[in-house]
Amino acid sequence: MADVTIYTTPTCVYCKAAKEFFRENNIEYEEKDVAKDEQARDAMVEKSGQLGVPVIDVRGSIVVGFDEKKLLELLRIK
């Protein structure tokens, strides 16, 4: 199971940027499309209190939006 879950929608530019960041840094992630998956949407809102995407769960720490600095810190990437 991946340490990172990203809640996305197909048209989200910041979601695409976050996924590219994960690929560039060889970070495995699980993607949940909240436009299609109602349970994932509900889980995202419960975790973050937000309807906006991306919402990124890194081992239980929630990042709303694509905050590269925070992700680097949480993933301990130098």
Automatic annotation (TrEMBL):
Domain Glutaredoxin span(s) in chain numbering: 4-62
Pfam family, one: Glutaredoxin
Residues in the signal sequence: none
A molecular-function term among this protein's GO annotations: electron transfer activity
Xref: Gene3D superfamilies: Glutaredoxin
GO terms under biological process: cell redox homeostasis
Highest taxon of the lineage: Bacteria
Transmembrane domains' residue ranges: none
Protein name: NrdH-redoxin
Origin organism lineage: Bacteria, Candidatus Wildermuthiibacteriota
